[in-house]
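Objective 1b: paired records.
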Amino acid sequence: MPVAQLRLLVFGAVVLVLEIVATIVAIVLNLPAQFGDVGTDAGNEFAARGTAISPPIAPLIILAGSLLVLRRRDRWATVGCVIIGLLGLLFTIGAIGEAAANGTPDVPKAVLLGSGIVGSVIGATLVFLAVAAVTARSRVSKPG
């Protein structure tokens, strides 16, 4: 496994764990998503819309599956890299959307800004690491 792919795997696993913890914290503190529409109940909305500090459940499940596929040594690992890169792009867009949203009584603007900054860095790092991993895999697979 190329070093770049290993870095993506480790960082992606850390992100997955942190996002699960962030989802639990957001539900406990009732920090519903504010991107696109004002949320009021994180417990009811987290599966479809995510929370103010974490993405919805479907991208997290896809991330987990992609991390499993990324461990393979065949072309499916490249597919996993690409999917993780696309998820990183979606995470970045969602984080920017949360940062741009107006604060509410449920979610202060400071939480939205902090979440947006951290989420953007995480998403952009996933994209960067995914591109590096795909590049490293293509170099390893070419003879000579």
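Objective 1b, second protein:
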Amino acid sequence: MLLWQIDTTDDWMWGDMGKLYFWIRRQDLAASRFEHAWAVIQG
């Protein structure tokens, strides 16, 4: 599931005006296992 999404701003830029997504499995979130999350950059 989507844990956190960050859009490009004037101060932060992901690729060419993209977004940064952090994903985590529902069971890992329930157990607070954030080390199992992963990031995807859309540029």
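The chain has a mean pLDDT of 90. The helical segments are 26-30.
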